[in-house]
Each structure stands twice: as C-alpha cells, then as structure tokens.
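We give its fold:
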Amino acid sequence: MDLEKIVKQIIDEVMRNQESTFIPKSDERSKRTVHFPEEFEMGVENPYKEEAIRHAQSITPARIGIGRAGSRMKTQSYLQFRIDHAAAQDAVRKDVNPEVIEALDLPILETRAESLKNYLMDLDAGRKLSDRSKEWLQKNGEKDVQVQILVCDGLSSSAVEANVGDLLPALTQGLLLKNIKVGKPLFIKRARVWVQDEVAQLLNAEFVISLIGERPGLNTDESMSAYMVYKPTDKTVEADRTVISNIHKEGLAPVEAGAHLSGLIEKMLQAKSSGVAFARQNNLQDV
C-alpha cells in the first residue's frame, strides 16, 4: 500500500469536511442570519421550577435562566454577551453624533480633557472647562438665570443620543410652564459631574442640572443620570447634589423623567437647597 497516497487521501477528506462544516462560502455566509431576541429565552432544559425562572426574567434584565452547555454558556448567550460588551465599550469610546447636538441647537464647550485617554485617566481634567470654553461662556453665556441645563457625554455617548432628544424638551417645557427662568442649554464634551459647579459660578446661575451619560453596563449602554445642585461653590461636595438615575427606555422614560425633574427642581428652588439638606427638609419622601 502506498503510504503517501493514503496520507494525501486523509488530508483531502479533512479539508473537504472543514470547507463544508466550518468554512461556509462567502455567498452562503452572507445569507445566514443569527437572531438575538430582546428578552432572554428559557435556556434551562427541563427546569424544576419554570414559573420561578420566568418570573425572575420578567423583573430584571440580568442573565437568568440562560442555561449552559457543560460548564459554559450556550453559544447564543455567549455571543449576546459579546455584543453587549462591545456596545458598552463603544458608548465610552465614541463621540456623540454631531447631528444630535446640531438638531438641538446646543453650543459646544469642552473641558480640559484634550483626549479620551486624558479624560479617563485624569478625573480633574473633566471637572474644569478649557480656557477657550471658559472665555466663550463668560462672553456669551446667559447670566443670572434660575436654572442652567447642561448636556454632558460623560461615560456614554449612546445615552445622550438615545435620550436627550425627548428628555431635554420635556424638561425645558416643564420648567417654563412653572415660570422658571431657564438659560440656553449647553453641551459639554468629555465632562464630569463637577464641571457644573464652575459653569454655575461663571453664569451666576441659582441652580444647575447636568444630564450626563452613565457608565455603561451589560444590561444597557443608554442609561442617563440627572445631577442637580443649588448654588454650588468651590466647597460643594457630593452630598450637596441630588441625582436621578436610570433614565432610558427600559427604566425611567425620558419624557417622564423631564416632567419629574422639572417638578423636583421647582421644589428645590423653593427650599433653596439640594442633596441631603433638601432630603432632610422633605423627610426623604419626595426625592
């Protein structure tokens, strides 16, 4: 028997199997569609308490009841995990679409963070305006308003793109209906929460609210928070701020958040306080 011929036949057979099983042709690959449901499907085979698993799935976006293959996740669950992880990374790394800012007619300011790396590694860089933005704000910003609204990318550009189109008009309209003087909203790139303190002092604003992208997770990359503070100074700390978080389509809906925030701001203006001081005055019931 020709050993070389036998080896060649085996290699040819292996290559044919690989081509048919693992390496689809380009035209076949382009036709394949992988479906990823928005809600987790029941991945546990023959569950002991199926109703309990489905109830848990209905009240949390956590990965519950996805099942396993041996000691690992099933392929679809693993791929969905990778998709969610990639979306979270993109939310941090990419800038807000300029068309979103343009559509809302927002002046664009910048912090001292000159790059994304600088922004992520140096917290203080995102807490102060750049010299150019500070100069622009002093010359062009509206002074002595009751409320100044800031839109900040923070750690999720996706949150701004998904929510601000509905949230900002709802908030602004709610405040105007309450006869509260509102300054023209501003967009601040690579911003941290504390930048609101400097803006309020430069404009002599009584109250400032920052709509800022939250740190993205694997459940959503579109969550936004609203940080509010009454008359901030250089000595303002986190306890002086009031925050409403989880603003997104699966949490507190943007339009609903706008209405809620306008009512909350009206109360804080009347109380002349925010944060822990405001919560104490209201016995923690309205925060």
Remarks:
- The chain has a mean pLDDT of 82.
